[in-house]
Write a structure and sequence with these properties.
Length: 215
């Protein structure tokens, strides 16, 4: 609950590839406490132990996890159904979950799940995802997932962070175009969770005020 007695929006937070919930929690501390105080954030570790070298080795301590595995072209996924079921189980365990917040691999999942849920192929046992916060996101490329996740516009309120030098920026912009009335924060950094300047802080707080009405 917030200090005003109103329930805060609860987000299930999905971390990046070969990192962890604890690492994402640390990364989000770049955001001011005034932002974090308005959100109820639940951090989960992905279901599969890291199957290779992590890019954050030497920066953040292990253990590291991954949500699913994929081929070089990012068109074929291994353990994808198991991943979706695991996220649903997390939403049941920590519910009620109002929205999803994701970074990198977690952002790609977070943005696809509302569409997959709408089509009845994921999250069938939990309430509708009401909003998403996407940092360094992109779209899946598998034709099957594309057809199910993005054939209709993503209608829930969405906030997207696009980094000027992020290697996924082009794909993040494609994702933004698949959303209905997305809110976008541009930042000068790369594939990272950015600090908030005055302008992006205002945009973020406006988004939070808007979604609080739907909790």
């Amino acid at each position: 609950m917030g200090s005003d007695g109103v329930r805060k929006p609860r987000f299930l937070c999905l971390h990046g590839f070969r990192t962890s919930g604890e690492i994402l929690k640390t990364q989000l501390h770049k955001w001011p406490q005034s932002v974090l105080d308005h959100l109820d954030l639940v951090f989960a570790d992905a279901p599969f132990p890291c199957q290779g070298k992590s890019d954050v080795e030497g920066i953040f301590d292990p253990p590291y996890y991954e949500w699913f595995q994929f081929n070089k072209e990012f068109t074929e996924y291994t353990n994808f159904d198991e991943c979706l079921k695991y996220i649903e189980d997390c939403m049941i365990k920590h519910g009620p979950i109002d929205g999803l917040l994701g970074f990198s691999q977690g952002a790609i999942l977070s943005a696809a799940l509302p569409g997959l849920q709408e089509k009845g192929v994921a999250l069938t046992k939990v309430p509708k995802v009401k909003f998403i916060i996407i940092v360094g996101g992109a779209k899946f490329r598998s034709p099957w997932v594309v057809e199910k996740a993005y054939s209709s516009p993503i209608r829930c309120p969405s906030l997207h962070f696009l980094g000027e030098t992020d290697f996924l920026k082009k794909y993040g912009m494609e994702l933004v175009e698949s959303c209905d009335e997305p809110v976008v924060i541009h930042h000068p950094k790369g594939h990272t969770i950015p600090r908030l300047d005055d302008s992006s802080l205002k945009t973020m707080m406006d988004f939070i005020e808007r979604i609080k009405k739907d909790v």
